[in-house]
């Protein structure tokens, strides 16, 4: 399974390709190896069949039997901050 914004060479090795959204097309955060968190806000609409990361991950989790029902990426970050003191600043 592969999640990407373009049909890359790597896609030829995947059994399933999920149309992902690019950075300006989604809400969310990215944490680098220095534990710095960068927040992104959606500035462009999703093209075609692309989906935001939360939608893809949550849909997969539900199909695997998990009861994930996050309404927004902020709920995920709030949960992470509760469980990871380094983020709760």
Per-chain topology:
Elements: E1 2-4, E2 17-19, E3 28-31, E4 37-40, H1 53-63, H2 73-83
Structure description:
The protein has two helices and four strands; from the N terminus they run ββββαα. It is of the alpha+beta class. Strands 1-2 form a two-stranded parallel ribbon. The chain has a two-stranded antiparallel ribbon with strand order 3-4. A hairpin with a 5-residue loop joins strand 3 and strand 4.
Give me some keywords for this one.
89 residues; alpha+beta; two-stranded parallel ribbon; two-stranded antiparallel ribbon; 4 strands; 16% strand
DSSP strand (E) fraction? 15-25%
Along the chain, the helix and strand elements come as EEEEHH
Low-confidence stretches: none
Overall geometry comes to globular
Largest β sheet strand count, sense and barrel closure = 2 strands, parallel
Structural class, from secondary structure content?
alpha+beta
Radius of gyration: 15 Å
Helix content: 10-25%
Q: What is the count of helical runs?
A: 2
Number of strands: 4
* Strand line-up in the sheet with most strands: 1-2
Distance between the termini: 35 Å
Q: pLDDT average, as an integer?
A: 89
